Amino acid sequence: MPDTSSSPKPMLIDGVWVSSAESIATIDPATGLANFEVAAAGAGQVDAAVESAWRAVRQPAWRDMLAHQRAALLRRIADGMDKHAERLARLQMIENGKVWAECKAQVAGAAATFRYYAGVCETVSAEVTPARGNYLSMTQYEPYGVVAAITPWNSPLTMEAQKVAPALAAGNAVILKPSEVTPSPALELGRIALEAGLPPGILNVLPGLGGNAGRLLVAHPGVRMVSFTGGTASGRAIARVAADKLMPVALELGGKSPHIVCADADLDAAVAGVIGGIFEGSGQSCVAGSRLFVHRDIQAVFLDKLLARTRAIRVDLPDAQGAQMGPIASFAHRDRIESMVRGACEEGGEVLAGGRRPDDERLAQGAFYLPTVIGGLGPQACAVREEIFGPVLVVLAFEDEDDLVAQANDSAYGLAAGIWTADYRRAWRVARQLEAGSVWINTYKQLSISTPFGGYKQSGLGREKGVSGLRLYQQSKGIYFAM
Ligand code: NAD
């Protein structure tokens, strides 16, 4: 659905659609065709957005809005997302290539996130703290004021809802900078929020490059907190700037998650879990189970099943009936995946499935890559240690529980992990020892907005989601009344 209009899509500042001298092009990774030109923010727009956000957040219309009224507004945004679900899903699909069913599910999930934070917003309480004298002491929670939300391309709307909904529920104004690869769902969210009655300036949407708009936003003295989801290198760069500003940051970063299959596991269920865990979304998921650990005794039989299922995955255009895997989100990213698979072979890895582009002529213009399984790698290989963020699974073996835990934790990352076993005692023991922010037992990628989410080690700082996901966007104040 290429856009035929010639002028770039404007950005949203202070409730007004604003153009810019700079623009970025978005490309449909399934076809290689241009989608849209989108206005890209520079220093002038970042300043204007921060100014407008501060003005808006100090207006009585927002500052004095009662929690249940803010909750009603968040619900109206959710209703708007439901109403425009097809359009939101299509925008995501043509910009990052995810299959239609997943795009639809992610829009529904994003609307549910707004509803969840509406509920938290009007039920979460301040506290009266135990007095140690003749006074009444309280803890009150207040917004930072203006916060920046910076999001990646793999699940744009999911991440945007996960940041914008709690930050608004907490009483902030938000400047949202979506990925340069997927700016359109965020612009649409801005439009829906305005339509729902969000005061102008409370949500500004500024597409632009990370090294320009993103960097300027993080460094801006008027931005009091940053919530970032993306790569570990970008997260580290943001944390450095935040250290200089002494500004809080929440960082949801990369992963290299271990997915473990014990000898007593239900092998068919485990195969399905492992396949979904790595190949859903073409492996472009922060929690992708990209390191498979199979007990040595069952490795041969498990691999037979896994490889048969992997080869049967239907890679197709994202809106094709029955498509299970679409393209990689960009051509540049496919190049990177290809080069990492080549590197794995040079380090002694053996491609057991995939390892190349599909033969299908219909897919030749897109950034497609087959689901890939690689065996024979040692623990130091690059493909075992580094996040590939693509449909590439490396297979490793373990002997016993101690060996398993040591290998699984031998990673700079610690975002997620999965274990398949019939022994609930073992599941509990291993889950407690794994250095990961989420652990799944006999399931994988089960995510809920009510459960805090985040990473150990290089996978991030802070936790989004849950009630504490709202507190992430507030600071506490102690208030004392002499009695
Ligand atoms: P990225 O780090 O390149 O970009 C993410 C966002 O940050 C984009 O909007 C980009 O423009 C911006 N950005 C980049 N450098 C910046 C800087 N110095 N200052 C400010 N903004 C900057 O990541 P990506 O390639 O878009 O996404 C893939 C990465 O995101 C993967 O590593 C993946 O694991 C991670 N991710 C993590 C989670 C999670 O919840 N932990 C979820 C999804 C994706």
From TrEMBL:
Residues 17-477 form the Aldehyde dehydrogenase domain. InterPro entries: Ald_DH/histidinol_DH, Ald_DH_C, Ald_DH_CS_GLU, Ald_DH_N, Aldehyde_DH_dom. Its EC number is 1.2.1.8. One of its GO terms (molecular function) is betaine-aldehyde dehydrogenase (NAD+) activity. Gene3D superfamilies: Aldehyde Dehydrogenase, Chain A, domain 1 (3.40.605.10), Aldehyde Dehydrogenase, Chain A, domain 2 (3.40.309.10). The active site is at 252. Signal peptide: none annotated. Belongs to the aldehyde dehydrogenase family. This is Aldehyde dehydrogenase. The gene is betB_2.
